[in-house]
């Protein structure tokens, strides 16, 4: 039984451009936290009454409902001191940030990271995780969202509407560039990350779009690595270890919050009848942090 839902940009993107495989009526939504009411005969790690959260398979009926079916591999047990609202905020966006920092990035010897669009649900978590491993964090943000990002204490904030991002990055790093980049914005910025902002042996993790073009000579000369991130793709793959890691990452994020080492950056909690308005805020990109929807009253 679902208590709380975490909203994500991918939710409205799937509504606008649904998969050809969807059968209708179709229920959208990927993230939820709630109580187990039934388990399959081969399920061993969960029982009726457990409080759980999970990032579901976008190919299936989803979480914008009172009940949803989850594969057990992607579920995490919610600690007693963590609320359903908080648990639902630590899924798609937070897990994407976690996977970027702790699964994709080579952190050995790295000191600096550029995280684009620091006020978002993925990025505000990424800032905190990057700080937790000792990285100096540079982030970009619009003027209106500056105060929100300051609460996460990045080492350098660039107002991309007023400042040149490349110039500010190179100035902060004294001309060497950053070791790591998390790009959730667009292909053009990813291209600039490769050509202008990354240091020797640097690494780009991209989510929204791949670089516009890749100059092999630039990659070879600077030793740059480019990595794509597709969190939910594990659901469609036949690698069970990667599927299971969805539950592992969700569990580890819950533990960080339980230990007061991570702020889930919840900025709004809406009622179920306000779900559409929450999605509209995401489409207009005028929200910060994480929007949660309560299903139960």
UniProtKB/TrEMBL annotation:
GO MF term set: oxidoreductase activity
Enoyl reductase (ER) domain: residues covered: 1-293
SMART domains on file: PKS_ER
Pfam families assigned to the protein according to its UniProt record, in alphabetical order: ADH_N (PF08240), ADH_zinc_N (PF00107)
Gene3D superfamilies assigned to the protein according to its UniProt record, in alphabetical order: Medium-chain alcohol dehydrogenases, catalytic domain, NAD(P)-binding Rossmann-like Domain
Protein name from the UniProt record: Alcohol dehydrogenase
InterPro entries, A to Z: ADH-like_C, ADH-like_N, ER, GroES-like_sf, NAD(P)-bd_dom_sf, Zinc-ADH_QOR/CCCR
The keyword NADP is assigned to this record: yes
Organism: Companilactobacillus kimchiensis
The UniProt record lists the keyword tRNA processing: no
Alphabetical keyword list: NADP
